[in-house]
């Protein structure tokens, strides 16, 4: 099919492309070709990965051909024990983007209202649009989420 827009739902086709911050390479080229840069945008860690994470990755490389446990049983078990709750109360995913999308698709119906704080992650707006729902953005209160206003 030559024009995919003809088959995409209207509310989905109106979603604006996410514009991430500049890459570290682009920042260096533009602002400090010789200097050291600590990028704090895009939820990136200027300190790099934890040595324990690097060790765990190295130890699991030989299992890279195997599909991981998609139920995240061990992770949920450890988290549940640490938090003192049932693992059935946990939902894990590959970051907040996936979790917000999954929860929105699972629980929202077209025409319902999605409530989020202003300045929240852009995914809230995108999920509301995908689900053909109304987004209500609650202003921050002293640079914090106003939970009372969200619940009201």
From TrEMBL:
Matching PANTHER family: HISTIDINOL-PHOSPHATE AMINOTRANSFERASE, HISTIDINOL-PHOSPHATE AMINOTRANSFERASE 2
Catalytic activity from the UniProt record: L-histidinol phosphate + 2-oxoglutarate = 3-(imidazol-4-yl)-2-oxopropyl phosphate + L-glutamate
Keyword Amino-acid biosynthesis found: yes
Record pathway: Amino-acid biosynthesis; L-histidine biosynthesis; L-histidine from 5-phospho-alpha-D-ribose 1-diphosphate: step 7/9
Keywords on record: Amino-acid biosynthesis, Aminotransferase, Histidine biosynthesis, Pyridoxal phosphate, Transferase
Name under which the protein is recorded: histidinol-phosphate transaminase
Enzyme superclass (EC): transferase
Family classification: Belongs to the class-II pyridoxal-phosphate-dependent aminotransferase family. Histidinol-phosphate aminotransferase subfamily.
Signal peptide feature range: none
Gene3D superfamilies, alphabetized: Aspartate Aminotransferase, domain 1, Type I PLP-dependent aspartate aminotransferase-like (Major domain)
Pfam families noted in UniProt: Aminotran_1_2 (PF00155)
């Amino acid at each position: 099919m030559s024009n995919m827009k003809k088959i995409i739902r209207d509310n989905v086709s109106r979603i604006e492309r996410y514009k991430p911050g500049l890459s570290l390479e682009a920042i260096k080229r533009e602002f400090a070709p010789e200097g050291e840069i600590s990028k704090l945008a895009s939820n990136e860690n200027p300190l790099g990965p934890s040595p324990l994470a690097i060790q765990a990755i190295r130890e699991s490389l030989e299992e890279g051909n195997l599909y991981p446990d998609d139920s995240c049983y061990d992770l949920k078990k450890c988290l549940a024990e640490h938090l003192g709750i049932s693992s059935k109360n946990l939902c894990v995913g590959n970051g907040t983007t996936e979790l917000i999308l999954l929860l929105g698709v699972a629980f929202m119906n077209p025409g319902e209202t999605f409530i989020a704080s202003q300045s929240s992650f852009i995914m809230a707006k995108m999920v509301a649009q995908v689900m053909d729902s109304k987004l209500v953005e609650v202003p921050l209160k002293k640079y914090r989420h106003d939970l009372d206003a969200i619940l009201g």
